[in-house]
From TrEMBL:
The lineage of its organism: Eukaryota, Viridiplantae, Streptophyta, Embryophyta, Tracheophyta. The keyword Metal-binding applies. This is Fe2OG dioxygenase domain-containing protein. Belongs to the iron/ascorbate-dependent oxidoreductase family. Residues 184-284 form the Fe2OG dioxygenase domain. Pfam families: 2OG-FeII_Oxy (PF03171), DIOX_N (PF14226). InterPro entries: DIOX_N, IPNS-like_FE2OG_OXY, IPNS-like_sf, Oxoglu/Fe-dep_dioxygenase_dom, Plant_2OG-oxidoreductases. Keywords: Iron, Metal-binding, Oxidoreductase. The keyword tRNA-binding does not apply. GO terms for molecular function: metal ion binding; oxidoreductase activity. Coiled coil: none annotated.
Length: 339
């Protein structure tokens, strides 16, 4: 627990291990580029076109009228803040640097390289479906955490599965193509906590990366911090009240043979205000075999990606740091030559 940023005394100076060279933290553009905002209550044809257009253009969008109740969102935000405000002793047994543990709290990130660290603490939870089968090793404090997380996760996963169905229809796939094992793994939640940072200009909360899963649904907090790669630049995401930020994971890029892209994103820190977000990851099962769908292949458009189990993909992702490159295709081809 001594590595947890939020449990330490207030930092007046940024420790050297968090400081990055200027070329690793280029500033975001000053131009205003808004993520598309999609109202999921509109007609089905309109929504699926909007999702597909947003996915092809930027790989990120925000959704409103999405079916997750305002109460569930507010309760989730509140209970997560309560968790990080608990005394360190009440969270100590959850701390672990073992990346295989389904439930744990830890500091910095799995992207840590060369001794450099990122300004983030994280509570990781894995939720099975039905939720009654979820691991019982979840925190028992705050007392209402389990009830709140279960309700939030059921509603958020439901929203995500509907987005996937709409996307399939827009792509010309059968509506349930992305159901089953490819979306049937544990729903993983990362409750990311970014404490106030003494020098946001010299560090990052999370490095540039692509998500390795199928679909990510972010409850973003109204404190800005997320930035998305866009035509060689970085754009700041302006949160919308009661909206989720949605982005495609690497598996959607593979399935569509590169038609849809898993786009790099990063998190910057804030000088005076803590930021807490909840990222919900819809994941394949470990042994799910994933490759380009036949519908996206032809003589003129051969497979750009290997067909791998999700477990193999995760191993490759961690070895070659797929998340640190914009060109997932090149990385996978390089790995294929090496293995």
């Amino acid at each position: 627990m001594d590595k947890m940023l939020h449990s330490a005394p207030i930092h007046t100076n940024l420790p050297d291990c968090f400081v990055f060279p200027a070329d690793k933290r280029p500033p975001a553009t000053a131009a205003v580029v808004s993520l598309p905002i999609i109202d999921l209550s509109r007609s089905r044809d309109e929504v699926r076109r909007a999702i597909l257009d947003a996915g092809k253009e930027i790989g990120f969008f925000q959704v409103v009228n999405h079916g997750v109740s305002e109460q569930a969102m507010q309760d989730m935000e509140a209970v997560c803040q309560e968790f990080f405000q608990l005394p360190a002793a009440e969270k100590a047994e959850l701390y672990s640097e073992d990346t295989q543990k389904a439930t744990r709290i830890y500091s910095s990130t799995m992207f840590e390289t060369g001794g450099e660290r990122y300004w983030r603490d994280c509570l990781r939870l894995a939720c099975s479906f039905p939720v009654a089968d979820s691991p019982m090793a979840w925190p028992d404090k705050p007392q209402r955490l389990r009830e709140v997380v279960e309700k939030f996760t059921v509603q958020t996963r439901g929203m995500g599965m509907e987005i996937l169905r709409l996307l399939c229809e827009g792509l010309g796939l059968r509506h349930d193509y992305l159901e089953g094992d490819i979306s049937g793994g544990d729903v993983v939640l990362h409750v990311n906590h970014y404490p106030p940072c003494p020098d946001p200009s010299t560090t990052l909360g999370l490095p540039p990366h692509c998500d390795r899963n199928l679909l990510t649904l972010l409850l973003p907090s109204m404190v800005p911090g997320l930035e998305v790669a866009y035509y060689g630049d970085w754009i700041k995401v302006q949160p919308v009240p009661n909206a989720f930020v949605v982005n495609f994971g690497c598996q959607l890029e593979v399935v569509t043979n590169g038609l849809l892209k898993s786009i790099e994103h990063r998190v910057v820190t804030n000088l005076g205000v803590a930021r807490t977000t909840v990222a919900t990851f819809i994941m394949p099962t470990t042994d799910c075999l994933i490759g380009p769908a036949e519908e996206f292949l032809s003589e003129d458009n051969p497979p750009c990606y290997r067909t791998l189990t999700f477990g193999e993909f995760k191993r490759i992702y961690s070895v070659v740091k797929l998340g640190s490159s914009l060109n997932l295709t090149t990385n996978l081809k390089n790995v294929q030559k090496e293995t």
